[in-house]
Amino acid sequence: MKKLNPTLFAVFLLCGAALAACSTSGGTATAAPPPSAQAMPQEAQPQEAQGTYRKITAQEAKAMMDKGDVTVVDVRRSDEYAAGHIPGSILVPNEEIGDTQPEELPDLDAVLLVHCRTGIRSRQASDKLIKLGYTNVYDFGGIADWPYDTVTE
């Protein structure tokens, strides 16, 4: 009987471990809404107290903006914001979100629609906002995918 080459065995073992690691979901993507929110429209459902935010599309964000009572949070740098931003959005740079609640966002229960340029900083900022106690955080990615109007300053 032929013995299995130890190097080949190690390669198979590493491939199996890599596949297992890739199959688990990471990050803080959303779970199902709490049962009490089941009757509410999907875009208006509050987030779970466990500390998750909801990833939504630009189209869903626009629909929520059109209905009103949301705060659009742009987490890019000030120069990026000045070059073009969503009308009515407020600038709270991701780098400035730390261990204390941003003064621009006084209401922990406000519906926050967070975006950046491509979606990386908005994900980071959404995580930070949840850790600070915000309960209704929605990440709609980057302005690069925003098909609607922007304004400049």
From TrEMBL:
InterPro entries under this entry?
Rhodanese-like_dom (IPR001763), Rhodanese-like_dom_sf (IPR036873)
Answer yes or no on keyword Plastid.
no
The residue range of the signal peptide is 1-20
Q: Which residues form the Rhodanese domain?
A: 66-152
> CDD domains in the record, alphabetically?
RHOD
Q: Which domain of life is it from?
A: Bacteria
Please list where the region (Disordered) is annotated: 25-46
Entry's Gene Ontology molecular function annotations: thiosulfate-cyanide sulfurtransferase activity
Q: Which UniProt keywords apply?
A: Signal
Question: What is the official name of this protein in its record?
Answer: Rhodanese domain-containing protein
- The organism encoding this protein is [Clostridium] citroniae WAL-19142
